[in-house]
Design goal:
Helix content: 25-40%
Shape: globular
Radius of gyration: 13 Å
CATH architecture: 3-Layer(aba) Sandwich
Order of helices and strands: EHEEHEHEH
Oligomer: single chain
CATH topology: Rossmann fold
């Protein structure tokens, strides 16, 4: 059974809803999935998991949340080599540039992304939640 960490930061609850759906998808494939707020996760924990799904909304000028999420993720970046990673998040403006940049940073670090990132505009609808479940299933 694979062990999956779903690590997220959510200001309005949109990304938290997506995180729960990612965990549901992993569970549906028989994986053990554990949800963590960004403040509860650290780079030291990366080796405990077979895969990690990271979720963060677009903030400011299409960037990762910079007080809790970005510092945690930056610390995890050196541990992404050959690790199965999934990315998800919501946005309210822009065109998804934050996700493209984030995905490229993960690939440059050597991460294996078995599925395309999932982004939704504002609150996830049922299609968005289903995409998140599929993302969780893909990393399980």
């Amino acid at each position: 059974m694979s062990k999956i960490a779903v690590v997220f930061w959510s200001g309005t609850g949109n990304t938290e809803s997506m995180a729960s759906a990612v965990a549901e998808g992993a569970l549906s494939k028989g994986a053990e999935a554990k949800l963590f707020a960004a403040s509860e996760f650290s780079a030291d924990m990366m080796d405990e998991f077979d895969a990690v799904a990271f979720g963060c909304p677009a903030m400011g000028a299409e960037e990762l949340e910079d007080s809790e999420f970005a510092p945690m993720f930056d610390a995890c970046l050196p541990k992404l080599r050959d690790k199965k990673i999934a990315l998800f998040g919501s946005y309210g403006w822009g065109d998804g540039e934050w996700m493209r940049t984030w995905e490229e940073n993960c690939r440059t670090a050597g991460a294996f992304l078995p599925a395309d990132p999932v982004i939704v505009n504002e609150a996830p609808d049922e299609d968005g939640l289903e995409a998140c479940r599929g993302l969780g299933a893909a990393i399980a």
